Amino acid sequence: MPPSPHMSQRTVPMKDNSEHRVNQLKGEDLQCKCCCDLSLEETMARASGERAPAFSTEELEKLVDGVLPQYTLLYGPPDKQVSAHQKKDIWRAIAKDVRTLEVYHRRSTHCRKRWENIRRWSKKTAEAQLGMASQRGRGARHTMTPLMFRILAVAYPELDGR
């Protein structure tokens, strides 16, 4: 399909020697349209080999605020969980909410991975503080934060030792 007069196209080289075709509608952000849904900022960062910036405190709070009410649908017992497609829609909505802070264009996969990491770190820290860490591990070196307590209260109520 030929591009409309309101759209411009160009190719952006990537670090792995591949190329991404990007389209831009007037008044919108440049988007990668060949294999993913990257913003121009993210496409260019990948092209130069840069990493995305770490999640800010505000982004983490927005992420946790988005996940906790949906926790049962995403991670609950099988009879309470929703389909994989519905889970993707939930993660897209959470990412859209995180993007309202305009720190960085976070995709749903970034948000899901960051959630998994902070959920795992919260559990590991709580176990270490409660003396339940394995003998092989080094244990947690950080103290529990209020955000971690919120995560534990929903994800691991048995570890929520306030």
Secondary structure layout plus pairing:
Elements: E1 7-13, E2 19-25, E3 31-32, H1 40-48, H2 57-67, H3 71-75, H4 84-99, H5 108-129, H6 146-155
Antiparallel strand pairs: 1-2, 2-3
Helix pairs in contact: 2-4, 4-5, 5-6
Q: Helix count?
A: 6
Q: What proportion of the residues is helical, as a percent range?
A: 40-55%
Radius of gyration: 20 Å
Poorly predicted sequence stretches spanning 5 or more consecutive residues: 25-29
Q: What is the percentage of strand-forming residues?
A: 5-15%
Task: Provide the spatial order of strands within the biggest beta sheet.
Answer: 1-2-3
Residue-averaged pLDDT, rounded?
77
Number of strands: 3
Q: The biggest beta sheet, please?
A: 3 strands, antiparallel
Q: From N to C, what is the helix and strand string?
A: EEEHHHHHH
Q: How would the global form be characterised?
A: globular
**Helix/strand structural class:** mainly alpha
Euclidean distance between termini CA atoms: 59 Å
InterPro entries: Myb_DNA-bind_5
Protein name: Myb/SANT-like DNA-binding domain-containing protein
Pfam families: Myb_DNA-bind_5
Domain Myb/SANT-like DNA-binding: 51-125
